[in-house]
TrEMBL record:
UniProt lineage: Eukaryota, Metazoa, Chordata, Craniata, Vertebrata
Record's protein name: Valacyclovir hydrolase isoform X1
Domain AB hydrolase-1: 53-182
Coiled coil location: none
One MF term in the entry's GO annotations: serine hydrolase activity
Keyword Hydrolase included in the entry's annotation: yes
Amino acid sequence: MVVFFWTRGLRTLQNAAQRSCKRVHYCTAVQAGKKSVNGVELCYQQTGAGDHALLLMPGALGSGVTDFGPQLKGLDKKRFTVVAFDPRGYGSSRPPIRDFPSDFFHRDAQDGLQLMQVLGFSRFSLLGWSDGGITALIAAALSPANVRKLVVWGSNAYVSQEDIAIYNSVRDVSRWSERMRSPMEVMYGAEYFRNTWSAWVDGISQFTHNPQGSICLELLPQISCPTLVVHGQKDPMVPSVHPQVLLQHIPNARLHVMADGKHNLHLRFAAEFNRLVEDFLLE
Ligand code: TYC
């Protein structure tokens, strides 16, 4: 049994969202919103008033609020306009009930890209964590005209037998620690969480039927924007061969390894992570 797991930022941003902007030159509040995108209602958080727009893409069963609290709070609001969205079937973007057809990452990618268009951003950078990073890789490959820069961490472009073994070791959520399970059960209810997590394990396992277990390997050479791959050296969920493969296949990529980082490095080492990402985006 894998007992570590990643910690979702539990801090709710609702209070921040309710705070008014007062008389400051830029808005520091986090606004929650909902837009109709590709036939579903997608929820998102938005903050900041900078020229450089960012879309934050959460991990499996994640949401903007649970996965990106320290980024919504800490990224420079003068330089960036930060949007974090709940993919369909996750967080507050329900209904629909989440499903995992073979193109689910492509569907999330199209949803994220379309949400930014609806919000009025034609060029923006993508920050994706774990599954959200896979989604971001696909979005950057398919829509290069819209994507300025790309940051992904804890992400993989294919699944190996080693990955499948890890997925199956965490399939049964009753064996998760209370600390990891409880926030998900609060967000989803125990039954939706249990079923959707198991469906996710089946969903990601389908890629083993592709040559090389590819999720999006063949798209990586099409990513033309500057790309930062971040990896936690102590990430127990995503073996370190994955960032190496991303680096090999993405033409304009660099790798930054955080020595003490695990899967949730952007939450655990938020200040360091935010600084790293800001420096890369502002280069
Ligand atoms: N990809 C998952 C996410 O998006 C994380 C994860 C990785 C879960 C490996 C299980 O075995 C696993 N957060």
